[in-house]
Amino acid sequence: MSAFTDRADAALADPILKIAVERTAGTAEAKRTIAIDAFPDFEAARTRAAAIKDHVIAHLGPYLEQFEANAVAAGAKVHWASTADEACKIVIDICQAAGAKSVARSKSMLGEEIGLPHALAEAGIGRVETDLAEHIIQLADERPSHIIWPAMHKTREQVSALFKAKHRSPHVEETIAAMAQSARRELRTQMLSADVGISGANFLIADSGAVCTVTNEGNAELSLVPPRVHIVTAGIEKIVPSMPHAIHMLRMLARSATGAALTQYTTFYTGPKRAGDRDGPEEMHIVLVDNGRTKMRDEGLAEMLRCIRCGACMNHCVVFRQIGGHAYGGTYPGPMGAVLTPVLDGLAPNRDLIHACTLNGKCQEVCPVRIPLPTLLKGWREKSWREGLEPTSMRAGLGLWAWVATRPRLYRLGTTIAVRVLRLLGTKGWIAKLPLAGGWTRHRDMPKPAAQTFMAQYKKARRP
Amino acid sequence: MSARDAILARLKGPSPDQAEADALLVAPERPAVDEAALEAEFLARLALPSVNASHDVIGSMADLPAAVARYLAGQGEARTLCLPPDPRLTACDWGGFTLHDIAAPDEAAALAIARRGIAETGSLIFETSPAAPMLPNFLALHHIVLLAVRDIAPYLEDAPLTGPQPRAHYWVTGVSGTTDIEGTYVRGAHGPRFLHVILLRN
Q1: pLDDT greater than 60 at residue A308
Q2: How many domains does chain A have?
Q3: Domains of chain B, first to last
Q4: What single DSSP character describes residue B11?
Q5: What is the mean pLDDT of chain A?
Q6: DSSP E strand boundaries for A87-228
Q7: Which domain holds residue A419?
Q8: Taking residues A228-257, what's their average pLDDT?
C-alpha cells in the first residue's frame, strides 16, 4: 500500500470528514451554479479568460520585465527566486534585516507551496495567520485541506473545541458567529502589532507594477497596511497585462470560487507608503517565484499555468468530495493538485495519486480558464508508464492484454471463455465474489455478463 | 547566473503585441447594467445579501453630519467618528460629534469618501492619499461612505482612475465576511460588520 492509498483509506473511514467536506463543498457548488446561471454567456467568458492567460504565458518573460520595471519605479523592491528554498531565504533575510519578531500572514497558497510557515518557524520569527481558516489550521497545527477553505475538513464542533482550548477570551454561545467573533478578538491586536505583513498575489499588473489581493474578510488589508514592511510572494504566472485584464479574471474568480459577483475587498497595492500618507508600509518587497513554473511551460504543462486558484475543480470532484484535501498529500488538493503535485514533489512518490481520478471531466467543465485537467492527468499517467514507475503486475497484465488484443481470434476465444466462467460465478444478475479481484467485490457486486460476447451477438444479428 | 537571469533566459520570447492584448478585451462578457438608471442599479446591488449595505440620500454636503448622526443613532452608537483629514469633510459642521483622525484598534465608526461607485457590483472605489488613509475603513465596526451620485459608473472597467497610481486602489463590495466555518456566512470577520452609504445627490 502506498502513502496515498493509506491516506485515502483513512479519509474514507472518517465519518466526520465526509460531513465537513460535504457541508462546504456542497454549498460552494450550489452557489456557483446560481452565479453562473445569472451571468451572460459564461462559456464565452471562460474562453476569453483562457485566451488572456495563454497570451500572458506566451509572453511571460517580457511581461515580467515590464512588471518589474513598473514596480521598481513605484518604489517596490523586486526579488527573483528559482526555487522554494531561495524564495524562503529571501523572505527570511528581509524579515531579519527589518528586525522582525512577528509577521502577520494573509492566506497565500504560494506561501504554503514554498514552505514559508516552516521557514519562519525555523528562523524563530513569530507568525500570525490572519485568514480565519488559516488561523484554525495554525491552532490545530495542520495543513490546509482546500485552497479557498483551508479548514474545510473541520466541523463547527471541532472549531469550537479548538478555540475554547486556545483563545484567551473564547466564545460562550455555540454559534459560528460567536466563534468568528472569538477569532476577531484574538487576532486584531496581533495583526496591528506585527513587524512585517506577508501576502501572496492574486494578480500582478504588468503595466502598473501593482499587486492585487482579494479577500472577503479584509484580513489582507489589516495584515499589510499597519506593518512597516510588506512582502509579497507570487508565482510568476500571476501576471496579467493590465487592470482591465485583471477585471475579467476577477469576474471569473469570485463566481467560480464562492458564487459571488466579486470578493468583498479587492486591493491593488502599488509600491510602499507615499510622502504624506498616514498609513501603509515603508518598504514593499515582491518575490517572484518560479519553483517549476518555467519547466511546466516548456514541458507540456503550460495550460496548468492558467490556473487562478479558484477551487471549483475540487468542489466538483467526486474523489475530493469523498476523501477531502489532506489525502492528496501535497500543497494543492483536488484535480489541480493531482496535476501540480508531481511537478512540486516528484512523479515517483505520487504515481498512485495521478490514478485517483475517474476522468469524468467535471473539473474541466467548471474550470473558469478551461484547463484540460483530465488530459494533463493522462499525460502524467503516460509519463509514469514510460518511466517504468507502474508496478510490475500492472505492466505484465497490460502487456499480456496487448498481446492477446492484437490477435483477434485468440481474443474472441478468451472473452468467450471468460463470459462463461463469469456467468457460473453469478447469481441473480450479480457476482458477489470474484477470484483475483477480491478488493473490488469486497465493497460492491459486479454485474453478471450477458450470455454471449458483443462480437457473438453482433454476428448473430447480422445473419439474415 | 542570478535567479532573475535564469528565469528570464527560460522565458525568452517575443514582446507582446499591444493590439493582441487589447483585442482580448473587446466586448467583455459582464452583467447587464441599465446605464440610463445608474443610481437605481447601484442601489439594487448595494441591497443584495452579498453586499448587505444600507443607504441614505442627502442633497448637499451641509446635510452630511445630520445623516451620519441619524445612522449612528439608529445603530445605538455614540456620535464618535473617525474622520479623515479631507477638507471636504472637515469643512462640515460636526457640532455634537466627538471627532478624531487616527482610528483606534476597536474603532466604532469611520467615514470616508468613495471616488466612485460601480453599478455592476455595488462596489465602492477608494484610493489612498494623505487625505484618505486606508486603515480606518478596515478597523471600524461601521464603515460609513459618502458617494456622489455623479460618481456612479456602470462597470468595473470604470473603476481605474486616470492619473498617477495611488499607493493603494481598493474596492469595497460589502462588509468583512467569512464562510470559513462549514461554509456558513458570518458578518464582521475582521473588519466592518456594517456598511452604510450616504448618496450625495446634487
Answers
A1: yes
A2: 2
A3: 35-200 (3.40.50.10420)
A4: T
A5: 95
A6: 102-105, 126-129, 196-199, 203-205, 210-215
A7: 400-462
A8: 97
